[in-house]
Amino acid sequence: MSSKNHSKLCDLQRGLATLFTLSAMTTAMLHARTAYAADAEADAGVAQTMSMVTISAGRPTSLPTQIPTTIEGITAAQIERSINAVDAEDALKYFPSLNVRKRYIGDYDHAVLASRASGTGNSARSLVYADGILLSNLLGNGATFTPRWGMVTPDEIERVDVLYGPFSAAYPGNSAGAVVDYLTRMPTSLEAHARLSGFSQGFKQYGTNERFAGRQGSLSVGNKAGNLSWWISLSHLDNDGQPITFANKLVSAGTPGKGGTPVAGAVADKNPSNADWLILGDTNQTHTVQDHAKIKLAYDITPTVRANYTLGWWKNDADRHVNSYLRDSAGNSVTSGAINVAGRTFTLTPADFAPATGELEHWMQGLSLKSHTKGEWDWELAVSNYDYKKDEVRTPTVFLSSPGAKVGTLTDASGSGWSTLAAKGIWRPYADNSHIVDFGVQRDSFRLRTLVSNTGEWTSATAGTKVSSFNGDTRLESVYAQDTWRFAQDWKTTIGGRLERWEAYNGSLGSSTSAKKFAERSETSFSPKFALSHELDDNWTVKASAGRAVRYPTVSELFQGAIIGDTLMNNDPNLKPERSVTTELTAERKLEKGLLRATYFHETTHDALYSQRNVNVTPNVTNIQNVGLIRTKGLELAAQADDVLWTGLELNASATYTDSTIIDNPNFPASLGKEQPRVPKQRATLLASYHPTDVWSVSLGARYSGKQWGTLDNSDPNGSNYTGVSSYFVTDARLRYHFDKQWSASIGIDNIGNKKYWAFHPYTQRTFIAELQFDMR
């Protein structure tokens, strides 16, 4: 056996040993209380508990829970007592195999959701909804196209559910990773809530050693009077995040000699490829001020037909500051010109220490009309729109230290957004619900508008001459149907399919002097779905699922680029869609007070979309390309138990082992046999919450991720530095106390051990959080 294969075998053995050890330990702690109701009872409205999921009759999730596949969830009560949830995405911290790349509190443009077979660079391979309204930003794929988490506040969450994999025909191919559904509160009587919180982080990295702090406040009120229910919520966040980028120069890029201004303060380090470089200062230290308001209305037209309307508004003002470590002989800060570090000359550019500002104002609307008879027929009509009313980013293009320097650029994405339209139905032809047929027609449209202009004064001047522009639209029209059939007492299957027609149009790319238009494209695909479950006895259930997902290129992947002279330098407008086939096999063990689950999953993705270097052309071109084949397989264990060892102790644990390998990639052969970027081999979570009474609760959480790579050819072994992707093990704690029925307070610590870890940018270090909350119900 080769040393490489022996090493892989050892890794596999260690990973499996870890997984089964955790499984054995968790099983030993679990008591036996069945909290898993029969499917027919669940459909009739009886409460059902599966893993962390609680589904009640009053506010059903939009996820197709009758499909026999993996769904996990968490309730508002669990979030409140167990998780330091400042942003909506914090509710996902301890879900099996999930990771949100949230860099700091209020991170609005890089918090990508990663799943079993998708890393934190693949934002378009998951879907996030709030009350059925699409929050996923499918205008692009990557760090800057993250779900619009800010449209949901933690205070309004009633429950969060996650469907793993593309096993429901009701969702497009972006569901290849996971579908997240936020269910928010709608009152049944008068209620009001208020919360004040503060947080503080000590951050020490390279030449930075500072404390960054913030505060947050929220207020919400709602009521139900007759047939009308309403909810109004307001929130305000003001936070200073830690620096997330660092100015740097490769030592090899310096010219030996005595030229330039001698400076001190540069920090010697090695980059992810282990090349020597110098860290010159920190940049992108973000001060973000976010305001959010939402109005929700629900009107019962009849006892079984309800109309819902949601209007959301989110505003963000961001200032990104810079701090040079460099000092001349007089102690003055140096940010421009030629510098000399240890006998080598380097030339600083305006981009090395360029601050930036952002002004964003986004609006969201959703309207639905839905029946809930639970009889033979139910139906829903829904429409939603997400609009970049204002989306401007400003940055200087000259050295700010130069006298009178003011010019810069303005990047304006105003007018971008997306809209959805859907008509859905449910048919239950038999009174015993032995068949439940879901079907529907959907239309999702995406528009991207980006104009980069010169400005005479970078902080506030109006747009001047054009620098560049890129625009485009995509549209996905779909029809789907799936039948969940209980064909025998202990057997259930779901068979379905989704037919899609995709179009890309209005694509254009412009420079200061010219513009190019792209031809329209259209493609059609069909994605079959299948799931089967068998109840072996009262405690054991086995499930098998399979689904195809076609993830079409986004507007940004197709049309964003540049024109140099009269030559088009853009991402390939003829990109193929990603085509994934995912299967999973699950065994579930019901326990008296919990559930134990083991899932084997396997995914093959043809033509995966990645930015890479094409070595088959001269000169080499780096852009978005299709990677021939990526194969991912793994094992996921999850366990949940209530009243473990003593009353009031809840445990939720998971462990995942993943092998994700690039099998075929003609444009970049160096990546063959390498691991898919940002998909670690090992992941694990543990959340223990103790609440012996209604007065107080305490929780301890742990999150682990193994070694990751940031490049397709795995040429970045040094992940524990800037631009690297590192392993991590972090722990969090929370203590909550109720003074009386209405007032409560909590204190928490995220990253107790002050772990320094990276996903290109640094994550937060040890952070203290304090909350004071008022609830009237």
From TrEMBL:
The keyword Membrane applies. The keyword Secreted does not apply. Its main location: membrane. SUPFAM superfamilies: Porins. Residues 66-179 form the TonB-dependent receptor plug domain. It comes from Duganella violaceipulchra. It is found in: Cell outer membrane. InterPro entries: Beta-barrel_TonB, Beta-barrel_TonB_sf, Plug_dom, Plug_dom_sf, TonB-dep_rcpt-like. It holds the Pfam family TonB_dep_Rec_b-barrel. Residues 1-37 form the signal peptide. This is Iron complex outermembrane receptor protein. The lineage of its organism: Bacteria, Pseudomonadati, Pseudomonadota, Betaproteobacteria, Burkholderiales. It comes from the Bacteria. It is a multi-pass membrane protein. Residues 307-752 form the TonB-dependent receptor-like beta-barrel domain. Belongs to the TonB-dependent receptor family.
